[in-house]
Recover the amino acids of this structure.
């Protein structure tokens, strides 16, 4: 599986080199980021003897580090805080959750801190009783909901994955952006 995901990433890279259209190139790069998000999960699985659960803290730290590198964001400019209180999740939960985290962090890094604006980004994953709460919070510029394309792929992906997790998502865009995803049933 890991090799297959590496092949897909390589194919996307090759395809991206032949593109001149900025929006097409951005779509290719977003696809590569999503594939890498899944590859990190499988890499974590194969490094451990337990082939069902993934260390969530290690995964989220690697994912955020790669995204900061991908978007050329200096961690001295955007201060990152992890609050990961969940030790391990199974692949069926972490793959969709990881893709959501990937989208939310990508959006924050691309849009919340324009023109080298500094700020803070918090990624929290907390187990509350039998529920899982994901928070991705930035103190960036926020956004107008009307300005976000309704048919944007990332928005559709988040909605679809939230439904797959049987979760509830809420977004507050005052004083930065705060996204909270509550998953009531997970393993």
């Amino acid at each position: 599986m890991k090799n297959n995901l590496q092949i897909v990433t390589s194919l996307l890279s090759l395809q991206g080199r032949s593109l001149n259209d900025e929006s097409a190139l951005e779509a290719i790069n977003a696809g590569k980021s999503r594939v890498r998000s899944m590859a990190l999960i499988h890499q974590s699985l194969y490094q451990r003897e337990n082939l069902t659960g993934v260390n969530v803290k290690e995964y989220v730290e690697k994912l955020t580090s790669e995204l900061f590198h991908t978007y050329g964001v200096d961690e001295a400019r955007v201060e990152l805080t992890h609050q990961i209180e969940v030790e391990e999740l199974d692949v069926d939960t972490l793959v969709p959750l990881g893709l959501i985290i990937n989208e939310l962090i990508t959006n924050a890094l691309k849009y919340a801190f324009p023109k080298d604006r500094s700020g803070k980004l918090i990624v929290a994953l907390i187990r509350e009783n039998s529920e899982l709460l994901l928070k991705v919070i930035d103190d960036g510029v926020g956004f107008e909901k009307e300005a976000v394309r309704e048919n944007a792929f990332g928005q559709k992906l988040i909605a679809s994955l939230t439904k797959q997790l049987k979760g509830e998502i809420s977004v507050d865009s005052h004083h930065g952006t705060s996204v909270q995803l509550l998953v009531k049933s997970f393993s």
About this structure: Residues 96 and 161 are 6 Å apart (CA to CA). The radius of gyration is 16 Å. The first strand starts at residue 53 and ends at 55.
